[in-house]
Write a structure and sequence with these properties.
Oligomer: single chain
Number of domains: 2
Helix content: over 70%
Shape: rod-shaped
Number of helices: 3
Length: about 100
């Protein structure tokens, strides 16, 4: 019976050693230590970068909306019938820039 226990312990120790030096073993060890995985820190930084980028895009869209509103007001003002040049039939021989 002690021979079987010795064999199981030898194989168990060998597989535990292989697991410890593998990336999976390192991730498990980090999680046990409470450090979490390095990927979660990278994900948190990436999330912060994405949120900042979204805020930048929102500001740009708001600025573009303001510019479109301004352009619409300018175009609406220039389409005022009082500011339009007279038609060709109503103009004198000197031209429209009299």
């Amino acid at each position: 019976m002690s021979d079987i226990i010795a064999i199981v312990m030898a194989f168990g120790g060998f597989f535990t050693f292989l697991l410890a030096i593998s990336p999976v073993g390192r991730a498990v060890a980090d999680r046990i230590r409470g450090g979490g995985s390095g990927g979660s820190n990278e994900l948190a930084h990436r999330l912060d970068d994405l949120i900042e980028e979204i805020e930048t895009v929102r500001r740009e869209v708001m600025e573009l909306g303001e510019r479109v509103d301004f352009a619409e007001r300018i175009l609406a003002r220039s389409n005022d019938p009082q500011e339009l040049p007279k038609s060709g039939a109503d103009e004198s021989e000197e031209g429209p820039w009299h």
